[in-house]
Description:
By secondary structure, the chain is of the alpha/beta class. It has helices at residues 134-148, 170-184, 204-211, 230-245, 275-288, 305-309, 315-334, 345-349, 355-362, 395-404, 433-438, 456-471, 477-480; strands at 3-4, 12-15, 24-27, 30-33, 43-45, 54-57, 60-65, 74-75, 80-81, 107-112, 118-119, 123-128, 157-159, 189-196, 219-223, 250-254, 259-264, 292-295, 371-375, 386-389, 409-414, 426-430, 445-446. A hairpin with a 2-residue loop joins strand 3 (24-27) and strand 4.
Amino acid sequence: MSILKIHERDNVAVAVDDIRKGEILTIGPLSITALEDISKGHKMAVKDIQKGENVIKYGFAIGHAISGIKAGQWVHSHNLKTNLGEILNYEYHPELKRQVPIKCNKTFRGYRRKDGRVGVRNEIWIIPTVSCVNRNAQIIARQASKEFLGAGNIEGIYEFTHPYGCSQLGQDHLNTQKILADLINHPNTGGVLVLGLGCENNNIPEFKKVLRKYDSERVKFLVAQEVEDEIQEGVRLIGELVEYASQFNREDIPLSELVVGLKCGGSDGFSGITANPLVGSFSDKLISCGGSTVLTEVPEMFGAEILLMNRAKNQEIFEKTVKLINDFKEYFMGCNQPIYENPSPGNKKGGITTLEEKSLGCTQKGGTSDVVDVLEYAETVKQKGLNLLSAPGNDMVASTALAASGCQMILFTTGRGTPLGTAVPTVKIATNSDIFKRKSNWMDFDAGRLLAGESMEKLTDELMQYVIKVASGMPTKSERMGFREIAIFKNGVTL
Length: 495
C-alpha cells in the first residue's frame, strides 16, 4: 500500500511510502499519476481542487486551497491554508454515546493506599518548595538511593525539581503550589519529603495552607535553613518514609481504578491514522470497564473542538468545554500572539499542514466516549470516564499536568520520537514502524503495524495488556533511562 484515503469524502490521501513522480497509484476505482515526489506521511490530491475550495481529510475540512491543485500534486503549506478564525460562538448539538459499562474482570497489580486510592508505583518523592534547594534535593535522592534501595519494595527515590516557588505572584504562584500539592498527594508515591529553604514565598507554613490535609507518616517536611546539615537530615527522613512505604504491597486492583493520561508530541502524517485512533480505541475500552482517561493540549483541540463539545454529557459540561477553548484563545490574544501558530516545524516536516489537520488527529486519542467533566489546570479527576484538562500543548507542561490531575500513567503518541518522561510512567507509542525500530531505546509500542494490515481490535487488546503490565510494575523505556521531570505552567511576571 503506497497511499491511503482515510474517509470517503476526502479529496486528499496520505502517502504510506515515499512516492516518486510518475508513479501510478490506485485508490479504489481511481488510478492517479503522481505529478511530483511526495514524502511518506504527506498528502496528495486525489482530485482537482479549485482555489478557495476546502481540502478534506478525515471527512472534515483541514483548510482551503490557496491555489489550484491538480490530482496527483503534493498538498502542503505552499498551497493549503487554515480556515480557522478567532473567538467563536458555539451551540450544543449532543451526539452522545451513553456508553454502558460492561462486565470487566480485568485487573492490574497496584498499591492500595490508606485513603483508598491506588498507585501503580511505590516510590519515594522529594518535592522542593523552591528552586533554591533543587540541588540539595538531588543530592539527598542520590545518597538515599545508595542507602535504602534494594531493601523492601521501594521502587525508586526521585526528586522533582522546578524553577519556581519564589518571585511569583497571583495565579502563577498558586499554580506552582497546587501542582506541587497534587504531586505530594499522588498515589504513585508511598512517601514524600517536602524540602524548603525557609525564606521563599512558597515557604512550608504557607504551602501547607494549599496542601491542607496530609498524613504525617507519609509526608515529611524539612526546612534547610533550620538544620545544620540538610543532606544528612534529609536522608534520615527518607529512611522513615522508606519504612512507612514498605508496608504497601502489590495486590489485584480492578481496571476501573485506572486513570490514564492521553498525550501526543512530535506528530506526523500518520498520527491521526495509527497511534491516536489506537489510543482512542483503548480509551473507549478502558472507560467501558469503568476506568478513566484524561485528554489535554487545549490549543491542539482548536479546529476539532466542536466534535468534543457535542460529546459533552450535558449542557453544563458543554459550557465548561466552550470556556476551556475560549479561555485559551483569550490567553493567546492577551499575549498578542496568533491563536493558530501551529503546527510545529517538526509536525510540518512529518506531513501535517494546518492546525485543523493536527487537531482532528490529536482529538482522536479521546475515542468516541462522552465527555464527563472538564478540569481546570491543577484540578484532579473526580468523575469516571473521559475528562478534558486545561493545559497547553507543550509536552513537559502537559505531561506534568496529567500526572498532577491524578493519572497513574500516560500514553504518549509520537511520530517524530521523544525520550520524555515525567513523574508517572509514560508509554511512548510510535505512529510508524520506522521510528519504533530506529529509536527502540525510546519507544514502547508500535502502532505503525496498523499500516501493515493488523487490525485495530487486535492492537487495542495488545495495548490494553501492555498497559496492565506497566501498571503492574513493568518499567517503561523512559523509566529505564531515568527520565523523570516536571514543568509548571507560567503566565505572569517574575519579580
